[in-house]
Amino acid sequence: MAVNLKQLAELLGLSQTTVSRALNGYPEVNAHTRRRVLEAVRATGYRPNRAAQRLATGKARSIGLVMPIASGIDSDIHFGEFLAGLAEEAVKHDFHFVINPSAPDDEEATFRRLAASGNVDAVFLAYMRANDPRISILKSLSIPFVVHGRSIGGPRDYPFVDIDNTRAFYDATKLLLQLGHQRIALINGPDYLAFSIRRRKGLMRALDEWGLRLDDSLVQYSEMTDEHGYRSMQRFLQQPDAPTAVLCSSTVLALGAVRAINQAGLVIGRDISLIAHDDVLPMLKPENFSVPLTTTRSSLRAAGARIAARLIGGILEQGDYPEQELWPAELIVRASTGATPGR
């Protein structure tokens, strides 16, 4: 049977106040005492009374998320991986999630209700759009927040963790250009999302430096599923002047693209080159494809953990984090990229 706060304090020979302060991250509790308390919590299965904890500290120890719900919005393994990182960090500090479902046209009201409820100490935003109105909404509310990604246009003075999507796809395109490719296709995420816009921008910037222009017939936007990757690649291969290389915004899209390439009887890395963005999904490793994929790599789970650490650190007044973080993506060259055919 789990113990209560009084029994835990008696077991440790400490006052209930000291145990409570150790659990709630008060800086005046020394590291040795905090460690003893946490070890006892693990050993006894003690769970704090959240209502009492909130009364004592004024903190709910919860992070809020507004989840858009509507017909046509599919589940996304990428977001699941991000949440896994967020959850791993939250568990370390005994924080919870509060997920509020919302219709896309009711997000502003949902954020306002969530902030006013007192049920969360902070919120995070994801799936950033161009000129995303949610940033201005949250800046007007008295609740801390961190953004995963960046908007395009609008306010710039807000906390975020993002990867340099423009640079990632610029570097990937430059590699293909150096290998002689000029007909380069893009299988991208949804066209309204900021990361998709920036990845296209990176491709266009590299092409422009080589005196080339992006052929709009070689760009497909879609949800990032293997079926969409398959259909997009089929369309490209059916063109009279098919691309000799393709960029995919996810290894999930690449899974479908590879299927279409194989069905067409082409050899990846010889007849057509492929580069995918690798979010480091545990069930879909690029090195395990039939032809190991060249990738731009940045871990979604690490991003989730970082955002949780920043939010929790701000709530508990611990840690010193930069306001804005732009992470580089690593370009990893494998066998799926080769010289353009006939070169």
Low-confidence stretches: none
Tell me the name of the CATH class of the largest domain: Alpha Beta
- The total number of structural domains is 3
Percent range for β-strand residues: 15-25%
The helical percent reads: 40-55%
User: What does the main sheet amount to?
Assistant: 6 strands, parallel
InterPro entries: HTH_LacI (IPR000843), Lambda_DNA-bd_dom_sf (IPR010982), Peripla_BP/Lac1_sug-bd_dom (IPR001761), Peripla_BP_I (IPR028082)
Protein name: LacI family transcriptional regulator
Keywords: DNA-binding, Transcription, Transcription regulation
Pfam families: LacI, Peripla_BP_1
What does this structure look like?
Keywords: DNA-binding, Transcription, Transcription regulation. It comes from Sinorhizobium kostiense. InterPro entries: HTH_LacI, Lambda_DNA-bd_dom_sf, Peripla_BP/Lac1_sug-bd_dom, Peripla_BP_I. This is LacI family transcriptional regulator. The protein has 343 residues and is of the alpha/beta class. The chain folds into three domains: 53 residues, lambda repressor-like DNA-binding domains (434 Repressor (Amino-terminal Domain), Orthogonal Bundle); 129 residues, Response regulator (Rossmann fold); 133 residues, 3-Layer(aba) Sandwich (Rossmann fold), CATH 3.40.50.2300. The strands form two sheets. A six-stranded parallel beta sheet has the order 2-1-3-4-5-11, with helices on both faces. It has a six-stranded mixed beta sheet with strand order 7-6-8-9-10-12, sandwiched between helices. Strand 1, helix 5 and strand 2 form a beta-alpha-beta unit. The radius of gyration is 24 Å and the shape is elongated.
